[in-house]
Amino acid sequence: MEQKAALPVDKAYEYIKTRIMDGRFHPSQKLIENDLAQSIGASRNTIKKALLKLEQENLVILEPNKGAKIKAFELQEIKNYLEIREVLEGAILRRTAKTISTSDIKALEDLIEQMKEFAASNNLNGYSQCNQQFHEIIYRASENQEAVALVKQIKTQLQRLQLRTNLVPGRIEQSIQEHQQILAALKANDGSAAQKAVIAHITHLRETIDANYQQLI
Fold this sequence. Notes:
Elements: H1 8-21, E1 30-31, H2 33-40, H3 44-56, E2 60-63, E3 67-70, H4 75-96, H5 102-120, H6 124-141, H7 145-164, H8 171-187, H9 191-216
Antiparallel strand pairs: 1-3, 2-3
């Protein structure tokens, strides 16, 4: 069966969102509808609809008579979101540790080895992709998909900032150790230890952002 082509609004939405996530569009940057329409090859109406979707995800701000700009998160707002992640991901890991499969454990082990290799070669994109895959495996294994959906929404909003924390000296090495601690708890089917490990991981991320906020934004 022939795959249907992406709808114009979806194409415009993905184009803009990708550039927000990877940092090509900067916080507080104004988005000019005519420029976007020309770059994407879409109508201004299509761009407007795409921007509305991104506003619903809290990635774009639409201001009357001023147009659109990229959402810029204040430090306290970021810290609040990460505190919510600590609670939700702690609950997810506590339950998932008791049910995670051996095949998922093996996949997590392989990803940590890849993360070490990417870190050694200073391949930040490769490292970040493995990091995301590591957490995605845990999310898929979770029996609480409602909590997973909320976590993913928060992570989407803060992804571009979290990626930049990899540039902070020593953060990647610390992050690998944190992932190893999460894995060890999951292998032991120790829900309490898994909960503590992931909370420590997010707490350290929050502390890194707090200490380096001006350099990261």
